[in-house]
Amino acid sequence: MKDRVLSGMQPSGYLHLGNLVGALQNWVRIQDTYDCFYFIADWHALTSNYAHPELISEYSKDLLLNFLAAGLDPQKCTIFLQSQVLMHAELHLLLSMITPLGWLERVPTYKEKQAEIRDKDLHTYGFLGYPVLQAADILVYKAKYVPVGIDQVPHLEFTREIARRFNFLYETEALVEPEALLTEFRKVVGLDGRKMSKSYDNAIYLADPPAVVEQKIKTMLTDPARKRRTDKGDPDLSPVYQLHKVFSSGDEQEFVAQQCRTAGFGCIDCKKILIKNVFALLEPLWERRAKFLNSPDELKGILEAGNEKAREAAGETMETIRSAMRFSQTI
Predict the structure, then answer these.
(1) Catalytic annotation present for 61
(2) I need a labelling partner for 99 at 20 to 30 A (CA). Which of 168, 180, 286, 321 fits?
(3) 77 has which bridge partners?
(4) Is 111 part of the annotated catalytic residue set?
(5) Is residue 194 part of a domain?
């Protein structure tokens, strides 16, 4: 049997290029090697978007479309919606009973997200306790691996600590401590030079039509020192060049860097090469996305089949957990 992998994404906005090259492409690569469970984390989206739950449904559909358009194959992996597998909520409740408050308060992203997202009130129990729900997401499938970058390993350790505490308290091995499946998550800069993010609204979205993608790249910031066509520039100061490092070949990167430093061509010429390469990546995705967008019954069937498979796997785990906690016995 293949080792199981678990990962998910929040439907907190439309998916963008950073999500594609940072995570989705890797998910597609490993679906042949592992027993992969990929989910739409709609309950997690409520931690910051609880005031507008109607948006979560729209963003969830966008996620599903892009999962499939990027190349995830329902015959090779399980794609499901978190809120349709109630075992996540049950295990979250049980784990919350044994999780020390101090563990939650020291999670690095707790204060980071509060500082980053200032237009929403994140002083809620759900936001503080989201790492417990995240742990439940992983543990309920007995996932051996979780794809993470090196900087995310401490977050996974929280899940491992909860699993160890549960197994110790109830003298069981019901919960599997997941391991990191270390992956290189390439950083993709946004239109303004900061990290591409839904929160910053500086992204190229996978749902953007070709004309919009082209216009966004054409209006991107470049080296501020190049005020005129004849001015020499420094490519390392240009967000456009940072995108070349992700989407262009090595030869193209050397060429545009040399042209920038010598004022061999203007910034619009540099952007034209980037547009060509981004389109080469997105055009097959746009084609598949349009196919699924016009096949709502197929989308529904894929999700329902994935939900059922996820419920079956999670249900087996919960039977073991209830037994370990003596909740399987009748009064």
Answers:
(1) no
(2) 180
(3) 36
(4) no
(5) no
